[in-house]
Write a structure and sequence with these properties.
Elements: H1 3-16, H2 21-29, H3 40-64, H4 71-79, H5 81-113, H6 121-137, H7 144-170, H8 190-200, H9 209-212, H10 221-250, H11 260-269, H12 273-306, H13 324-340, H14 349-374, H15 379-403, H16 405-437, H17 469-472, E1 497-503, H18 509-520, E2 525-531, H19 534-547, E3 553-557, H20 564-577, E4 581-591, H21 604-612, E5 618-626
Parallel strand pairs: 1-2, 1-4, 2-3, 4-5
């Protein structure tokens, strides 16, 4: 992406937080009545400094990880597996709440302009999540002017709002307007100020998005990413500080019926086009910020599954090249939280802060360890920047955890702990299964003779080595129309001409058992391996040759890690070319002892049966391997 496109697309999450961050801070301070509101200025200044420090810290992360350095990757590589899991838990909590908070804040912007919709925020918000789910399952991606426009519109209208508000304030010598009187329910104290600080600091969410997406930039990627990050942090500080300054000068206080931004827009632009445009731009950028999580959340789940710390179903891309399972999990979790909190932003903020700053803290601490180990040019300067970022993020994390513990931070902490426990148990299970499947000397009998594909009958075409390029691109459920020659008309065993196809993911005991079973039937056997890359294909071929190359092997490349679609396309191709054959697909199947472990293993056979059911003379069977 060009910087002009990357800036709005990757900054939407961070910049949109201006719509709810300042208001979250003020909602705490107003509990002390008008006496608490003046503290908004020094708290905002502290948060702005924190934004600057964390932004500079992530510039070092981009330099150290030019291929993308999210919190999970950095923490795992430098701090270990458990801190990496904690960072992943914080990130995933952050992404789920990004959807819920962004939709809730967007609905607040809409209902501020159209109060009659306030009673319908929950069903409308759930419908919006449904639209995001459908769009992302269809493969919609953030790119181009369409996704850049909402962010640029929001930035321009907020800058205009700040400029106009400061111009009006200058006419009065920048004398603050007295805030309307409000009843104090708490006294001004350290605890109140810290709670307000923790709430306002949620405006920093999304700062790490650019460090995750470094490879998406045009060359030189890391340099362009650092420049874009600098612009994003600069804009975030200006918008956040400017909004808080206007609130202070205009004497605006949070209102349950109208957002702070809506009140400021009303005062600056009146009820006309300027106000409507402000609310529309706010709702649009919040929707875009919610959609940002749909790219990042499934990616974290993919990384966890790759490391055997999440179910392997999250490795699989859908037919639209999207991580469909991760997208569904995100939508269900965000919808549940949004509905549970009645579509209100304020109660969600305490949950938000813990996840955000847990990921920040572990990522920056991991970078400190990285520079200490590497000690390359300018390592001391980079270490200091990351150490400052880690320290400040840790302070906010502890502050949020303590001051908002009873308000909901306990739930976020509980989710993080449960996530680490579940991920650890999943990894333990996969390690047990790997040990049970591992080959050892003299464990497997090789076939007594090589079994090859059958020679074609007179007039029948030979089997092609691989399906056509067009067949490879077909969806997994697409089947071809069959001819009369391919119908099941056999009435005696002699009329059946079988070919056994054994898909092999790895040379382990389950795969070898399936091969042994197929070979024992004394019929032609073809082994089929699906590889995500040419390098992996060569590695598997070497293992196959080491085993003895007893059976013919066909390797298919599937760069997007799809399994069913390549299998279906290849089998369909064979079926078209040799309709006289009866194809039997022999699948190795892991059978686990406990029901809870079933979700951790791909159930390939049912999916393959559904895809191949319309074709005659194709049989799908499984060879169980119990662990």
């Amino acid at each position: 992406m060009r910087k002009l496109v990357a800036l709005p697309v990757l900054s939407a999450d961070a910049l949109s937080s201006v719509a709810y961050g300042p208001e979250a801070m003020l909602a705490v301070l107003v509990l002390a009545g008008t006496a608490g509101l003046p503290y908004s200025v020094p708290i905002a200044a502290t948060i702005a400094f924190l934004m600057l420090a964390v932004g500079v810290s992530y510039r070092q992360t981009i330099r150290a990880y030019p291929h993308g350095g999210g919190s999970y990757i950095v923490a795992t590589a430098n701090l270990g597996r458990l801190p990496g899991l904690a960072a992943a838990a914080g990130l995933m909590t952050d992404y789920i709440l990004t959807v819920a908070v962004s939709i809730a804040s967007g609905m607040a912007a809409v209902t501020s302009a159209i109060p009659s919709l306030q009673g319908d925020v929950v069903p409308i918000g759930l419908a919006v999540i449904g639209v995001l789910l459908a769009g992302n399952l269809r493969g919609v991606r953030q790119a181009g002017v369409l996704f850049a426009a909402p962010t640029y519109a929001f930035v321009l209208v907020i800058l205009a709002l700040i400029a106009f508000g400061l111009y009006r304030a200058a006419a009065h010598g920048f004398q603050p307007t007295a805030a309307p009187p409000s009843t104090a329910t708490e006294g001004v104290g350290v605890l109140l100020v810290l709670r307000a600080f923790a709430s306002g600091a949620t405006a920093m969410t999304g700062i790490e998005a650019i460090s995750n997406a470094v490879p998406a930039f045009q060359p030189t990627e890391w340099r362009n990413a650092r420049t874009t990050l600098t612009w994003m942090v600069g804009l975030l500080i200006v918008l956040f500080a400017g909004t808080v300054a206007l609130v202070h000068l205009d004497g605006v206080v949070p209102d349950a019926q109208e957002t702070v931004l809506s009140q400021l827009a009303h005062r600056a632009f009146g009820p006309g086009f300027g106000y409507v445009f402000t609310q529309a731009a706010t709702a649009a950028i919040l929707l875009l910020a919610a959609n940002t999580a749909y790219n990042d959340f499934p990616r974290v789940l993919y990384l966890l599954a790759r490391d055997n710390q999440a179910p392997r179903i999250f490795l699989r891309l859908g037919d639209r090249l999207a991580f469909s399972n991760g997208i569904v999990v995100l939508s269900v979790a965000a919808a549940a939280i949004y509905a549970a909190f009645d579509g209100r932003t304020a109660p969600l903020i305490p949950l938000y802060a813990v996840g955000v700053f847990l990921a920040f803290t572990l990522s920056q601490t991991g970078m400190v360890v990285h520079w200490w180990r590497l000690r390359d040019r300018h390592w001391r300067k980079s270490l200091i920047f990351n150490a400052v970022g880690a320290l400040l993020s840790a302070i906010v994390l502890v502050t949020a955890a303590i001051t908002k513990f009873t308000s909901g931070a306990w739930f976020a902490a509980l989710v993080v702990g449960l996530f680490i426990l579940v991920a650890t148990r999943i990894r333990h299970h996969y390690e047990q299964v790997a040990a049970a499947l591992a080959l050892h000397p003299h464990a497997v009998e090789v076939p007594g003779r090589a079994l090859t594909r059958p020679r074609p009958r007179d007039g029948a075409p030979a089997l092609a080595p691989s399906p056509s390029a067009e067949a490879e691109a077909e969806a997994e459920t697409t089947v071809a129309e069959t001819t009369a020659e391919s119908q099941e008309s056999e009435e005696t065993p002699e009329e059946i001409h079988p070919l056994l196809i054994v898909p092999i993911a790895a040379l382990d005991l389950a795969g070898m058992r399936a091969l042994a079973y197929a070979a024992s039937l004394r019929q032609p056997v073809l082994a089929l391996h699906i590889s995500p890359s040419e390098e992996e294909a060569q590695r598997f071929r070497a293992y196959w040759n080491l085993w003895g190359d007893h059976l013919p092997l066909k390797i298919l490349l599937s760069p997007y890690r799809a399994i069913v679609a390549p299998l279906v396309n290849y089998i369909e191709s064979l079926h078209r070319q040799r309709p006289d054959l009866t194809l039997t697909v022999v699948l190795p199947e892991i059978v686990v002892r406990h029901r809870r472990h079933r979700l951790l293993h791909n159930r390939l056979a049912p999916r393959l049966r559904r895809a191949l059911r319309p074709l005659p003379k194709i049989i799908v069977t499984t060879v169980p391997f119990h662990v």
